[in-house]
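Project channel, design review

CF: Before we commit to the Microbispora maris constructs, I'd like one complete example in the thread so the newer folks can see what an input/output pair looks like. Taking APC family permease.
RD: sounds good, go ahead.
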Amino acid sequence: MPGHPPGHAATAPGSLASNAMGTKDLVFTVLAALAPLTLIVAVAPLHFLKGGAAVPGAYLVAGVVMALFAVGFMTMSRYVRNAGAFYATISRGLGKPAGSGAAMLAVVAYNALQISTYGALGVYATETFKNYFGRDVPWWVFAIVGLVFVGWLGYRGIHTSARILGALLVLETAVLVVLAAYVLLKGGSGEWSAASFAPSRVFDPGNSAMFALVAGAFMGFEATAIFSEEARGGIRTVRRATYIAVGFIAVFYAFITWVVVMAYGVDKIAGAAEADPVNLVVAVFDRYVPAPITEVMHILLLTSAFAALLALHNAANRYFFAMGREGLLPRVLGRTHPKTKAPGAAGLVQTVLAGVAVVVFAVLGIDPYLGLLLWGSALGFLGIICLWALCSVAIIRFLRREAPQAGIFRTTVAPGLSFVALAVVLFLVLTNLPLLTGAGTTTNILIVGLGVAGIVAGVVRALYLRARAPRLYAGLAQTSVDEPPAGRRETTVGHA
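CF: and here is what came back for APC family permease:
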């Protein structure tokens, strides 16, 4: 139809583009946000530092926990389909004030993750530019250039973003597969072992900090539900994409980290990580693959960070959009571009917010990696884990009350087990927060305080609406039902 991108169904004014994303698009968007190459090269060494050879097995354990969470989350998504996924789920299960608090925490968390990644982009780009051209350029220059491109692509709409994210994800995944092939073909360190997956090694009490870190590798997989209003095929597409994403993260990361262990040896990997964590994986590239492939890897680190920025920009936008549409944030954020159906106002706000953060860190001279990246990532990580845990409780309450026919495993066992595991992970993250941030007590208190402030602001806003705008309050989190429970007639409830 005129005014809509090809392949997009007509949508109501102020709505997102319907039928814009298939399973592949959703999977690529979520995995791109996780930045596989960046995680393996820049983050996994810290995992090895705390867990040694047990890291591959830890990824599989974390994958089981996330799969249990996904079972309840996807069952809940049959009844709640909303761009503010956490917000809608928690509102329907724990009440609208709790849902509003969760919404604001999600806004803080996703923006923190997105903005912090500009630190990684700036550092990688500065080093690459210096290596190729011999000149030092401030990190913030590259961050601002990346910010402009991310904002522009986000404005172009989710269809354009999905294509770019898919291409970049394939490239960065391919270079890791090439690394694995060379290590395996050359026999690694000569010591082939499955010790990395032995329960006695993986569940060693000394690995608590490792599990706190490894859980971060899954951060954002649930973003498939954020794009549920734009998914082609409805919740079935979202459900399929979610399980594929969880399975890929767990198996692929376990495999690649096991290859790194084989490159060093089971008994030597921890020592190597302690001796030089920054170059732990880079050294494997240097030792096992041809030099041109290593050069490609360094370039792909830039595209990996850029892909994560774009994917997280789109996710943060959807929360701003959902909150504006609901009236929890200014209504202007709930508007979309008439042609691309992108949340233009929300995208602009997110871009400006990121720009301000980059400028502040640059002016204050705070290290982009040790400051912007680590601090922002820690804030986002804490927020997402809290939301996972709250969702698990909300899922149990809602499904046991409204959809008991879904079965005891989906309504109680899976979300219950995931809540217990996530509560443990949250405790481990809080007790190991200095490790995640590399900062002192004051900074860590500020990071936690920002998350708490987001929750409080959301709850206060909901209570204000309940007292002053009861009709608006009544419409919060009332979303369309995608697949009605058996024996119940399907209904559609409009947004406030």
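RD: helpful, thanks. The mean pLDDT is 85.
CF: The chain is about 70% helix and 0% strand.
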